[in-house]
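REQUEST ID: PR-0412
SUBMITTED BY: lab tech R.K.
PRIORITY: routine
TASK: structure prediction, single protein chain
INPUT:
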Amino acid sequence: MKIKHSFLFAAILLMSTSLFAAGKSADELAALAVSGDSAISTTAISELRGMGSVGLDALFVKYSADIERFTKTGEADENWRRIANAIDTVAMQKDVYTSHLFWYTDLDAAKRSAKAQNKSILTLRLLGNLNEEFSCANSRLFRAVLYSNAGISKYLRENYILHWQSVRPAPRITIDFGDGRKIERTITGNSIHYILDTN
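STATUS: complete
OUTPUT:
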């Protein structure tokens, strides 16, 4: 009986949180996305992700000063970590504050968006996940150098719908120094960009 009540309470809480976020503007959701209440922030982030690039743009507008400050100083306090988490989760790319790129992970959704906007799809197939630290070496390089280039980022946003798919996990290696220090890194990884037409 206790389990049933707990389940019912959790369901009511989830529903009320979803209803709380429903009908809010992108700007209001952007503010809620960095809430200290994880139920509220998770729901707001999910709503922003569902809006596509519009949701991501709302975060960039709302937190432009914070993004600029972090870009200049590299200082990450708790507030910045919440902002970065919201931006990366909506975009599905790690460190997206440098690129401002929105990525689909559902190919059918990417196709619908491409059709609606009359654009081709640029799809990345990689080892690991683009929104995680330990994606393959190539995709980490893409994030750090390629996607973060202002000209390339602008061109991708204007001309393509972006999509990524993980082919399999990226292989990792752990180096144990024997004194409590350990380094974990990916050791290899291949990835490829394809351009897909409407078919």
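NOTES: The beta strands are 103-104, 120-127, 160-168, 172-176, 182-186, 192-196.
REVIEWED BY: pending
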